Amino acid sequence: MPRFNTEVDIDVSEFIDSCTDRETESLIQYLKDDGKIPMTLEDSIPEINLDADWKEALMKLLPRKCLLTVEEENLILKISGRLV
Fold first, then answer.
1. From CA 75, how far away is CA 24, in angstroms rounded?
2. pLDDT in tens, 50-77
3. Domain definitions of the chain by residue range
4. How many alpha carbons lie under 13 Å from residue 8 in its C-beta half-sphere?
5. How is residue 19 annotated by DSSP?
């Protein structure tokens, strides 16, 4: 049986938009494994002059948002709004 090689030029966004959820998750995992994107959110925080305790406290808050009261969440949003 003859074999044919073909090339198709598609835009990255077109490719990603045509992926299923499973394929998109697989692509994200591939990019993480290949070092193209950070493995964790902590890896994505730029190394700035944060003392270790402050960075540790922030990292502990990220996955625990659902445990915060509405008042605590509003206080954090209010504080962060002053920094922007």
1. 35
2. 677 777 888 888 888 888 899 998 898 8
3. 12-83
4. 6
5. S
